[in-house]
Amino acid sequence: MERNLKLRLSDLKNSLFFQVLYVLMEAPLPPRESGRFVVEHSQDVFVEEEGVRRVAEMLYALRKSEELTASGWKKANPLAPSPTSDHALNWVFVVDTMNFSFWPDREEQQCEVTYRGTTYCGYMTLCAAITRAMEEGIPITEPSYFSQMSVEELGRVLRSDNNTPMPMLEERHRVLTEAGRVLLQHGGSFRSFISPAGSDAQKMVELIVDNLPSYRDEATYKGKRISLYKRAQILVADFWGIMEARVEGDMPNLDFLTMFADYRVPQALVHLGALRYSDTLMETLRNGELLSSGDRREVEIRGCSIWCVERIKAHLWSLVEERDGQSCNINSAIIDFYLWPYAKQHHKEMAHIPIHHTRCIYY
């Protein structure tokens, strides 16, 4: 009887149910290690070392420009409040909490927001709408307000200037009010919420994903739990950008952050020859197939993008050390801050490279 019991326990451990349960209980790999794991097993997305070296050379030529510094944060987004403003930190929290899924169902039906004479689309519509609301006297950066605002009130804040509304309004309302309630439980501001992590980038990311469910950008790939944490990492990077501009404190382990895996930067990496899609995947994307969050191909695009930027950074660091005889402080977050506007500026040249489409709250 004892032998039979042991056999039944062995069968249970080998069962699909047990394997799935184990994966769900397993802590996910951090984003950098996730990127490496995905690259090692990828079927449709590949990092091209020759292209990686070319991008590193391009960045080396720009290594002393403001574009590759934290001080370029405000320049990259002129709609953000001054870093010294009392609203700056809560502004980035509100924007980063709703920073997902701006692509239109049809290219000719873009959501647009006009602010101070300039019309914006994509992610910048959100920035423009939040800054516009502040000018209109709506306390949109106050957790006491946005934690309990109605979906109709948020709809008015995010209103479009044409007949195309911002996508996923109800999801944006859910994650914003949820995040506001969390801030109220931790001192009532993003600064008080994040302060227990000190100046540790890794602890900041962990604090965010532990307390804010909408930031848990995770997946299962080839039987392994992985994390991508696009919004959590960009929130920490935005916090760092503000604190650097204020000359307040230092974040010595900022290199924990990877690039922020979305749908625009991968397109730029393919355009630059650092990333390659299989013919099958390229055809799938050109046909406009919607990829679900967690789909193998979607995970490969994002995971390989993370590792691609890590390789670019490694080559850049080597170039600076070999040619300049000094260490390099350009990290993955700064490289992402450069590549995202680069993609926007060169969108016509890259139009033949399709972006992948995934409707989700993670990016």
UniProtKB/TrEMBL annotation:
<keyword id="KW-0378">Hydrolase</keyword>
<dbReference type="GO" id="GO:0016787">
    <property type="term" value="F:hydrolase activity"/>
</dbReference>
<comment type="similarity">
    <text>Belongs to the QNG1 protein family.</text>
</comment>
<dbReference type="Pfam" id="PF10343">
    <property type="entry name" value="Q_salvage"/>
</dbReference>
<comment type="function">
    <text>Catalyzes the hydrolysis of queuosine 5'-phosphate, releasing the nucleobase queuine (q). Is required for salvage of queuine from exogenous queuosine (Q) that is imported and then converted to queuosine 5'-phosphate intracellularly.</text>
</comment>
<protein>
    <recommendedName>
        <fullName>Queuosine 5'-phosphate N-glycosylase/hydrolase</fullName>
        <ecNumber>3.2.2.-</ecNumber>
    </recommendedName>
</protein>
<dbReference type="InterPro" id="IPR019438">
    <property type="entry name" value="Q_salvage"/>
</dbReference>
<dbReference type="GO" id="GO:0006400">
    <property type="term" value="P:tRNA modification"/>
</dbReference>
